Amino acid sequence: MITPSKTVRLSDSALGKATVVLEQGPERRDLITLYKDVADRFESIDEFILAIDLLYVLGRVDVDQPTRVLTYAD
Fold it and tell me: What's the CA gap between 69 and 32, in Å, rounded?
């Protein structure tokens, strides 16, 4: 599910799902609001969190823990 393979299409992998989050940028967004806006493109909140984690590790987003606001990298 994390990376595409012969059995997992790119659009179904975490890499593919991460693009859904990136398309919502570049303005800052509350994570709850962001999830509500893209929930129909994810099978579960677990996929959404995995996509956010992946983008964070890649340095594409930052999340302010106290406010739960996601900021896109330049």
Answer: 9
Domains present along the chain, CATH in parentheses? 10-72 (1.10.10)
Residue 22 has pLDDT above 90, yes or no: yes
User: Residue 3 has which token pair?
Assistant: 């990376």
Cross-strand bridge partners of residue 62: 71
Q: What pTM does this model have?
A: 0.86
Torsion angle defined by CA atoms of residues 72, 4, 43 and 38, in that order, rounded to the nearest 10 degrees? 30
What are the start-end ranges of the H helices in 1-74? 14-22, 31-38, 45-57
